[in-house]
Amino acid sequence: MPILWDQYFKDRQDIPLAMILENRALADAPYFQSTPWKDLPQLWDRYLRDRIPFRELFMPGYVFTYEKLLRTNVSEYVTGAGDELFMNHAAPVVNAALGIIPYPEQAKEHIRLTAAGKHAYFQSKGIPYYLFLAPDKSTLYHELLPFYAGWISHTNWYTEQVSTLQKANIRFHPLNDYLGQFKDHERLYDVMFDNCHWNGNALKHAYDYMAGTLAKDNAAFRPVAYGEYYSLEDRKVVMSVYGSEDTEFIRLKHTDNFSCSELPMQYRSDGYNKICTNNAVLKSSLWFFSDSYFGETHGSYGVTPFVHNVHTYIHRHYGMGTKPFTALADETLKLGRPDAVIEEYVERMGGTQHSLYDPKLRILGDYWMKTGGIFLDHKTDLSVFSFRNIDRPDPASGEISVQADSRLTLNAPVAADDLGRVVVMGKLNTPANTAVKIFYRDETGTEKALDFGIAQGSQLFHETIHVKPFSKVNLSLQFLTPGKYRLEKIQEIDDLRERM
Predict the structure, then answer these.
(1) The pTM is what?
(2) Which end of the chain is more exposed for a tag (fewer CB within 10 A), N or C?
């Protein structure tokens, strides 16, 4: 079939220069005297390409020639079957899908801890927490990956995340199987435009599924009627130098019923932070943490049809930076108690790993999962320990008197989990800044030790020891500063004990 070059360039005349990433200084000609010979070809190439006129027309033709005619991949995207584009630069979607970049062990540990910790945190307050895992385009449309994908034995990140979350003992919902029933009837990811996010078709199905899931516990979340409260509309959009495509965008209706604004600063996470009030609904509240799948694409802009289900709707990006998730949640609860909390993220992001910066979240997660180890708080059963140079606690104050060369030892070994984890955690009030030494011995018989610090006063602590998965581990603690230590209460753990 002949290439209609006139039509090709006509279709691309509306491509803004910013989309071609040309907002930069033009390259200078290289100096022969100061430039190594091996670098000259690359530098001359940059110089000559920057001096070609009509560059905004040349670049689409250049990419078209290499991608379409020569079947050569450019750096940003990988071409699959049927000229399907897969993102591989901002996030290594294809490399992850093919197992070229394995799913990290640390990510398995922390998405499980984070998910279990959030479930336990909200469970302690009687608030349902729902976690939804979205597949990448490469997982939902694996048959459209490049031809060589079938030559490589691999496990994608999605499968790894589902497997590790299944061991968190929480309610979570993988979306790949549900969306799979629609993918052959309508596009859920675009071929070119924004091919790393769902389009409006998938957003509609995901909302229906999420709302239906929540409605099993609370009828207020029954999906609002499609067509009456929101709809899809066709738009012709441009994907940088790759061309234009028709795709679906969500459009909310009855926008006069609700108003939205930015959350006050103290309640914000990284990214977008929306709070909406719907005066057509008298009660109910929802918190929705999501990635950009729901937050910034295809007409949602951080507001989804859920805004029609509740009086107060808070939608935030799940990114927290180093801010503790439980601290943000504690603060936001001052605005009001939600009837439900949703979190959604897509597989390529590796899962939310907020437990990295939040010891309370780690403690709640490991307490919920019953991870083996030592847990010290005001209700710890100390009959399971033996004491050396440590007086038994005062029943009234919960204080223990620690002398030099102390040891607090578990009488029986504990079992590591499938990731080889045992933990030492709790809350102590200490007489001074001190170090605590953990002694541990697994089935190899060799005793090892590691230290961690605790600041003077009341402090949470959580330390993880990594050994062979499922091995039996003997544990003991040594407090290196003598004095009186008090085992203290963690409110969420106490509340969780009652609810469990």
Answers:
(1) 0.83
(2) N
Report whether 411 contacts 464 (CB < 8 A).
Answer: no
DSSP string, 461-488: EEEEEE-STT-EEEEEEEESS-EEEEE-
Distances from the Cα of 251 to the Cαs of 27, 226, 260, 285, in angstroms? 44, 11, 15, 22
Q: How far is CA 226 from CA 205, 229, 404, in A?
A: 10, 6, 70
Query: Is 306 strand, coil or helix?
Result: helix
What residues have CB less than 8 Å from 54, skipping those under 6 apart? none
pLDDT at 473 over 70: yes
Q: Is 283 helix (H, G, I), strand (E, B) or coil?
A: coil
Closest CA to 170 of 206, 230, 116: 116
Token couple for 53: 């006129």
Q: What is the band of 107 on the pLDDT scale with cuts at 50, 70, 90?
A: very high
User: Could you give the strand order of the β-sheet that contains 285-290, starting from the edge strand earlier in sequence?
Assistant: 172-174, 129-134, 340-346, 285-290, 312-317, 273-278, 258-262
User: What is the DSSP secondary structure assignment for residue 208, as one 8-state letter?
Assistant: H
What is the phi/psi pair of residue 146, to 5°? -55, 155
Q: Report which of 450, 386, 373 is spatially closest to residue 415, judged by C-alpha positions.
A: 373
